[in-house]
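Input structure tokens:
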């Protein structure tokens, strides 16, 4: 898919779902059955803490003739041919202020960086099915690197650059890698970057070379040694700088033994350990939509990250874990699925509403409602995210809280104190009849899950040709009424008037 469409959809959708046969559903309350459900939010303490710039995106190196299952979907999405003058692309990145942008992907371990004084050509990737990943080595010119850095600076992106981790190594016929990483070419790129005043948030070593790897792999002990070399290089080149880039790795799929050895031996040289999760399988899988609409299947998607967190906890390291890629379905996804409503929720609303402190939630009444709650990002109170995986039934969701400290009504300047009980059910509390909440209901146009047009509270969200992002305005509801979550809809609920200990 084109990068313009990717970034357009990033404003509206964050990938989580994939392919099925054509599905059209009605979001009309009159034509669907209604069930009663409830969500309980525990405000005692936060159960997690996310980065302020939690939303991120990856830009890859794939050329136009990268094809999967007969479809060549990448177009001009490559870092080498992306139109950096496109206003939609610029405004999409700037809207997140900042957006973490990772420059990397499968071909990053075949990219060489042009050096000052190089006499030879700096060739683009050329298709060759006999080679690993189906392409020859490619080259990044410094003129293109200049253009990219200027663009990302002006758009307010935080750049994480994925370095080629296979430079200098030999790859056997069985895919086995021999030798250590040759950092000479990477050093030239990093020095050029520093000398020109370009700010890089982090340098990441390699892409999907952990465990059994994709295409080939590197042993954990050797990868740890190479990571230490990268950290030493960064410290040397950035010596005297007030802020130094972080070092990340390995940007691969989880293998418990491999990651455990890597974490142990990389020691203090690794600030962030990065993991890729594509739990839905390939884009051609005809059962992908069945998986994403199955709550028990979705619940298993987070297990690899939990396993990695446990390794970090046991090691006592200060290294933190990120999911560097989570595209849902690999091999380029699928048209009108991975770039459509069925594939996600509104990332820009998440960025604007969901704060850093994560709260515990649990649902009852139906297993088709997925609920997530955070302290609000820019105001008091909380923001609740509800996703209805049911294509037929509307759920009327009531909210209950554990350990609220205050409820601020609309008619009183001073907050009213709630009764200090462990469990206060707000739906039945007459003191909150005048409390107002803000709701953002997201649905697909005409109820078509494959639609690329998203409706917010019934109105189309459209980015015009000038790249102007539409206004994302809520509707207001009385807090005493249940939240109406229609079939296959996504609802953000901002409740600024309810205060938790976890959010103070």
């Amino acid at each position: 898919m084109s990068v313009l469409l990717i970034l357009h959809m990033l404003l509206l959708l964050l990938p989580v779902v994939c392919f099925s046969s054509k599905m059209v559903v009605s979001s009309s309350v009159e034509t669907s059955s209604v069930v009663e459900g409830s969500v309980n939010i525990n405000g005692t303490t936060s159960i997690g803490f996310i980065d302020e710039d939690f939303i991120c995106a990856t830009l890859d190196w794939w050329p136009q003739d990268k094809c999967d299952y007969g479809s060549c979907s990448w177009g001009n999405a490559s870092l080498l041919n992306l139109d950096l003058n496109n206003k939609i692309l610029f405004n999409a990145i700037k809207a997140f202020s900042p957006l973490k942008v990772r420059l990397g992907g499968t071909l990053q371990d075949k990219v060489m960086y042009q050096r000052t004084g190089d006499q030879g050509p700096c060739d683009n990737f050329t298709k060759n099915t006999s080679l690993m990943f189906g392409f020859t080595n490619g080259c990044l010119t410094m003129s293109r690197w200049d253009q990219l850095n200027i663009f990302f600076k002006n758009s307010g992106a935080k750049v994480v650059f994925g370095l080629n981790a296979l430079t200098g190594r030999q790859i056997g016929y069985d895919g086995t890698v021999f030798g250590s990483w040759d950092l000479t070419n990477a050093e030239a790129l990093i020095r050029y970057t520093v000398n020109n005043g370009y700010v890089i948030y982090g340098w990441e070593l390699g892409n999907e070379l952990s465990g059994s790897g994709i295409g080939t792999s590197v042993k954990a002990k050797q990868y740890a040694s190479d990571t230490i070399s990268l950290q030493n290089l960064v410290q040397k080149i950035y010596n005297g700088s007030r802020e130094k880039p972080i070092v990340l790795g390995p940007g691969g799929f989880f293998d418990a033994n491999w990651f455990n050895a890597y974490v142990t031996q990389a020691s203090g040289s690794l600030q962030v350990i990065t993991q890729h999760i594509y739990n839905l399988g390939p884009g051609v899988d005809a059962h992908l939509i069945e998986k994403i609409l199955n709550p028990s299947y979705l619940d298993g998607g987070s297990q690899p990250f939990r396993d990695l967190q446990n390794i970090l906890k046991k090691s006592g390291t200060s290294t933190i874990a990120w999911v560097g890629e989570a595209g849902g379905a690999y091999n380029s996804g699928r048209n009108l699925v991975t770039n459509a409503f069925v594939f996600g929720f509104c990332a820009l609303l998440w960025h604007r509403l969901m704060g850093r402190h994560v709260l515990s939630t649990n649902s009852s009444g139906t297993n088709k409602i997925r609920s997530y709650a955070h302290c609000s990002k820019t105001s008091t109170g909380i923001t609740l995210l509800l996703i209805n995986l049911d294509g037929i039934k509307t759920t009327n969701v009531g909210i209950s809280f554990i350990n609220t400290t205050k409820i601020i009504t609309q008619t009183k300047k001073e907050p009213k104190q709630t009764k200090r009980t462990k469990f206060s059910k707000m739906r039945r509390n007459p003191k909150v009849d005048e409390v107002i909440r803000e709701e953002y209901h997201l649905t697909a146009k005409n109820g078509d899950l494959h639609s690329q047009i998203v409706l917010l509270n019934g109105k189309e969200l459209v980015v015009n040709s000038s790249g102007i992002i539409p206004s994302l305005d809520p509707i207001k509801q009385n807090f005493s009424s249940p939240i109406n979550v229609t079939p296959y809809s996504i609802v953000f609920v901002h409740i600024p008037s309810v205060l938790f200990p976890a959010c103070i």
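The longest helix spans residues 220-237. The chain is about 20% helix and 25% strand.
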